[in-house]
Amino acid sequence: MTQTEQLKMHNFNAGPSILPKEVFEEASRAVLNFNDTGLSILEIGHRTPLFEAVLQEAISHARELMKLDSDHEVLFLHGGASTQFMQVPMNLLDTNEVAAYTDTDVWGTKAIKEAKLFGHVEVVAGSKDKNYTYLPKGFRVPATAKYLHLTTNNTIYGTQWQDLEAFYAYNVPLVADMSSDILSREIDFNRFDLIYAGAQKNIGAAGVNMVVVNKNILGKTTRQIPTMMDYRNHIANGSMLNTPPVFAIYICMLTLRWLTNNGGVEAIQKKK
Ligand SMILES: Cc1ncc(COP(=O)(O)O)c(C=O)c1O
Question: What CATH number has the domain spanning 71-242?
Fold first, then answer.
């Protein structure tokens, strides 16, 4: 096996992960000539039917793969998952309210740091004491918490919340950073009120986040939210509040299409 083949099989590096070769083949054709338009995917207008079809297909694959109900909206937003560390509390947490956070990797720690800028944070469970080598069990979450935040897969330290049932029982809105395990295993995604994932791990190229949000939890803070940070504006404008990251969304669409055509989440979970 060549070194490249080995790297393609197991990429444990930081940053972007391996994508299916079919995605690259299709994307490379689209860079030169997108859908026989004579134009590159990099130069088509984002408000054209051409790109609208790409975005709609990406959303519809995501909805189907995640079996989302009609309360949940799928958004493709600029910025990496780190942007969500602040966008989540900015939208969901008032200054005098409490959000519960788990601290099970540096990503959780970073999310906590940002949330503290917007309201009170109670770290209800963490594993910093043993260098993030375990996942805490049996912790309490205040019933008044606006939401409980978890990182489903702790990318750097390698732990994963495999059993999510305990989280469902807390009866507070659940917010999850699923950047490094989204669509790799079957989860009841509708149990979460907000899910975010930087695309570059499992669903595409860097430069875009997929955000799945239950629209019923929005609009409950008194804070003035900057236009680009307010999820409601992105929902109202179908992820096209401004120029979207067209190429990154296109790669997500191809990857989600590939996943759909290859048996969906159930099939990919069996491959692990
Ligand atoms: C779980 C998790 N959250 C957040 C991030 C940060 O993502 P980004 O670099 O897109 O901001 C990463 C990056 O690997 C991650 O694995």
Answer: 3.40.640.10
Taking the whole predicted model, whether its pTM rises above 0.90 is answered as yes
From 105, 107, 161, 230, the catalytic residue: 107
Q: List, for residues 179-237, the tens digit of each pLDDT value.
A: 999 999 999 999 999 999 999 999 999 999 999 999 999 999 999 999 999 999 999 99
Q: Is 215 among the residues known to form the active site?
A: no
Q: How far is the CA of 233 from the centre of ligand 1 (A)?
A: 24
Residue from 103, 105, 177, 230 carrying the catalytic annotation: 177
Among candidate residues 103, 161, 193, 201, the one labeled active-site is: 201
Confidence tier at 127 by pLDDT (50, 70, 90) = very high
**Nearest ligand 1 atom to alpha carbon 154:** 1
Torsion region of 145: left, alpha or beta (phi above 0 gives left; psi -120 to 50 gives alpha)? beta
Q: How confident is the model at residue 272 (pLDDT cuts 50, 70, 90)?
A: low
Do the beta carbons of residue 253 and residue 61 sit within 8 Å? Answer: yes
Cα–Cα distance, 26 to 170 (Å, whole number): 44
Q: What's the one-letter identity of residue 180?
A: S
Q: How far is the CA of 7 from the centre of ligand 1 (A)?
A: 21
* Helix or strand holding residue 232 (H, E): helix 231-236
Specify the residue with its C-alpha closest to ligand 1, atom 10.
80
Asked if residue 119 has its Cβ within 6 Å of ligand 1, the reply is no
**Cα distances (Å, whole numbers) of residue 259 to 55, 61, 138, 192, 272:** 16, 9, 35, 22, 14
